[in-house]
Amino acid sequence: MSYHEREELDRLKDRVSLSDYLANVGIELKPAGHLLRAHCPLHEDATPSFYVWDDNSFYCYGCQTGGDVFTLTQKLYDLSFSDAVDRVREYAGGSNPLPAPVRTVLPTARKALRETDQSLLERVVNSYQSKLQGSDAALAYLHKRKISDSVVERFSLGYASGYLAQSMPAEIDHLLKLGLMRKQGSDTYYGRVTVPVYDVSGKVSQLYGRSLGDANKHRYLPFPHTTLFHPDALNESRIILCESILDALTLHSYSFDNTLSVYGARGLKGRFVEQIAEAGVRKVMLAYDADKAGDEGASKAAGLLRKRGILSYRLQLPEGMDVNSVAMESEDPGNELNRLVRDSRHNRI
């Protein structure tokens, strides 16, 4: 999807009030503090656990599913993404009323990870981790990206060499279900550096894959993001928040241990804001990319944080650059990143 296509979808999403949309399909929302709450339409929900956040997103603590109006439309009507976009576009244009939802139970592939899933995912992470040292290409990529060896070890980085089925032949059906293998037997993360995402209890909740080339750079498992990357940093009263995991790993490589990441420029969802606020964080340094998407994402993030009484500051990166590219191009990355973080205190947003 091109930048302009993403921009068009973002504009469409911003035109549609999620609370109004839900009301139009017969889902009753009630105030719950500064949020709106309802019985989740995607599963049996005796106690209301479905919340609509200030950023026009939703999250259900019962089935642990969240997203935007497109995600919700896919699930309510059992549609592909493109068909869901068309339905939202028709709704926004007032040309087609919303029919009654057809789905009341989540597809299995989108439910939260179960304990057995997490156990297998831990084994996969360990397998990938063991393969990393045997890949000169993957190690060269990480070194080029200025990711330190200590960060590689501390964050359990790995490499998918393509032998997952051979190493776990008894788990093929389970690997398929988790989205770690394709039906033809190939590894969905093949050729990628892998980064596990751990939740606050230390269990793997997601797996990020970054290709060594420019094509199809990013991959995640088909499960919702339930936590920020590196939530341990929420123990600090001041944190640095990046829009990508690679940027966060870059800052950790230069001893900025209070760094976390969301998953994209528009990735600071309401539930993540709650995690930050409930941890007692008072100041957030936004290390977002210096481009249009990063500027818009940082502005929106600052607004969400402001509503929770949290101050936001912006790292002033050179135009068109991100944290990792700054580190790659600098003769002294540690000193340059330290300057950017230090100077951000003068750039409150």
Task: Provide the fold topology.
Layout: H1 3-15, H2 18-24, E1 30-32, E2 35-38, E3 50-52, E4 58-60, E5 65-67, H3 69-77, H4 81-92, H5 115-132, H6 136-144, H7 149-154, E6 158-159, H8 164-167, H9 172-178, E7 192-198, E8 204-211, E9 218-219, E10 238-242, H10 245-253, E11 259-261, H11 270-278, E12 283-287, H12 292-306, E13 311-314, H13 323-329, H14 333-343
Parallel strand pairs: 10-11, 10-12, 12-13
Antiparallel strand pairs: 1-2, 2-3, 3-4, 4-5, 6-7, 7-8, 8-9
Helix pairs in contact: 1-4, 3-4, 13-14
Written overview of the protein:
The protein has three domains: 108 residues, DNA Primase, Chain A, CATH 3.90.580.10; 105 residues, DNA primase DNAg catalytic core, N-terminal domain; 116 residues, Dna Topoisomerase Vi A Subunit, Chain: A, domain 2, CATH 3.40.1360. Helix content is 39%, strand content 15%. The strands form three sheets. Strands 1-2-3-4-5 form a five-stranded antiparallel beta sheet, covered by helices on one side. It has a four-stranded antiparallel beta sheet with strand order 6-7-8-9, covered by helices on one side. The chain has a four-stranded parallel beta sheet with strand order 11-10-12-13, with helices on both faces. A hairpin with a 4-residue loop joins strand 4 and strand 5. The longest helix has 18 residues. The radius of gyration is 21 Å and the shape is globular. It holds the Pfam family Zn_ribbon_DnaG. It comes from Ruficoccus amylovorans. One of its GO terms (cellular component) is primosome complex.
